[in-house]
Amino acid sequence: MINIIISGAPGSGKGTQSDLIVENFRLKHLSTGDMLRAEIAAGTELGHQVEKLVSAGAYVPDNLIIDIISNAVSQIDDSYNGLILDGFPRTVEQAQALEEILEQTGKKISLFLDIHVDEEELIDRLLKRGQIQGRKDDNLETIKERLKVYNAKTQPISDFYKKKNNYYRIEGSGEIEEIYGKIEDIINLVSKE
Ligand code: AMP
């Protein structure tokens, strides 16, 4: 079993790298951002509840996102070799709740990947994605807010995982395949332990 957390600022390439990882290692991909956008698009009650927060670049309440992940983790079937959490945990509270969720299901985190990209490049990438994909939160004002929130609330969770000795920092500038290569080497290394 290999259970991965992929973390990094908005635009660091978490989603792109997660897609490559799940393809090659047969892991269940749980992206809280994708889940929330699906709820919003489907017009569910939860979608209505979170729409304003997501489009303003603010985080949705911890209890709400913890429930979503708790449900999703309990529904993963045996056909997978593990899971990859993309966009969760994003706060120390979420990281602590995840420990309990995993304990209840007999799982543990194998590695925490922290993808690092300079802020200037992040803004550039997100503005381009906004033009291509039309994501509502990919506009300059909201991008700046998301980076601010990331630095204040998500950056500190690195320390939580550094203490557990399964923290890996990846330089996320450059070619997608080259970055994936570095990630693949780490996963292979950790799987052998
Ligand atoms: P993402 O696609 O991961 O960039 O997430 C898009 C947006 O969804 C974020 O800017 C937040 O508004 C919300 N979101 C996603 N994951 C979380 C989380 N773990 N905690 C709080 N808000 C989240």
* Biggest β-sheet description: 5 strands, parallel
Helix content: 55-70%
**What's the tally of helices?**
9
Overall shape: it is globular
| Helix-and-strand structural type | alpha/beta
User: What pattern of helices and strands is seen along the backbone?
Assistant: EHEHHHEHEHHHEH
Instruction: Flag low-confidence runs.
Output: none
Estimate the strand proportion: 5-15%
Bound molecules: adenosine monophosphate
Number of strands: 5
Mean pLDDT across residues? 96
CA-to-CA gap between the ends?
12 Å
Report on the architecture of this protein.
The chain is α/β, with parallel strands linked by helices and 193 residues long. The chain is built from 9 helices and 5 strands. It has helices at residues 14-25, 32-42, 45-56, 62-74, 92-104, 119-133, 140-154, 157-162, 176-192; strands at residues 2-8, 28-31, 82-86, 111-116, 167-171. The chain has a 5-stranded parallel sheet, sandwiched between helices. The mean pLDDT is 96. Adenosine monophosphate binds at residues 10, 32-33, 36, 53-54, 57-60, 65, 87-88, 90, 94, 137, 146.
Task: Describe the SSE topology.
Blueprint (H helix, E strand, L loop, with lengths): L1 E7 L5 H12 L2 E4 H11 L2 H12 L5 H13 L7 E5 L5 H13 L6 E6 L2 H15 L6 H15 L2 H6 L4 E5 L4 H17 L1
Parallel strand pairs: 1-3, 1-4, 2-3, 4-5
Helix pairs in contact: 1-9, 2-3, 4-5, 6-7
The structure holds adenosine monophosphate (AMP).
The site of adenosine monophosphate has 17 residues, from helix 2 and helix 3.
